[in-house]
Structures are given as C-alpha cells and as structure tokens.
Inverse folding.
C-alpha cells in the first residue's frame, strides 16, 4: 500500500536527502527513490534495484495531505485524488 501523504519523512527511514533527491527505506528490501521539485515528487519504489511501481505526487494545497497521485504500473496510468490524506 502506498502512503497517503506527500510528506516522505513519514514513509520510512531517510537514508539520504538533498534539496532535489531523497532515498527512503520502507523495509529491509524496499526503497523509495524520490526526485523533489517545488510542488511535485517523482517516485520509484524499488526492490533489489528493480522498479516495483512509479508514481508522481502533485501538491494541490499548502499541506502535504492534499494532492493528486499519478501511478504507472505495467503501462497503465491511474490517478488518485487525496484530500486531507483520504
């Protein structure tokens, strides 16, 4: 299950982070590789260097819980709208 917030500090243990990139450890073999823009995150969830899922979060409010998530999985694109984390 994907996180319901853009605040990647809540996704797991931050391994490394700069102004434009971050790596967050979700579990022993799952890592989020994150490219950070002003109002957008581009994320790849990987296991053993294999991409499991890719998604993009676009911030729609001043908090990190109201956003649009676009998920690409096996050549399909799906959009999810989160308002206050739901």
């Amino acid at each position: 299950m994907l996180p319901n917030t853009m605040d990647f500090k809540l996704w797991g243990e931050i391994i490394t982070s700069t102004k434009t990139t971050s790596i967050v450890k979700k579990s022993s073999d799952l890592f989020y590789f994150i490219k950070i823009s002003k109002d957008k995150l581009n994320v790849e969830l990987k296991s053993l260097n294999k991409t499991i899922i890719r998604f993009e979060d676009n911030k729609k409010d001043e908090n990190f819980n109201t956003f649009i998530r676009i998920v690409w999985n096996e050549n399909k694109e799906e959009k999810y709208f989160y308002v206050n984390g739901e």
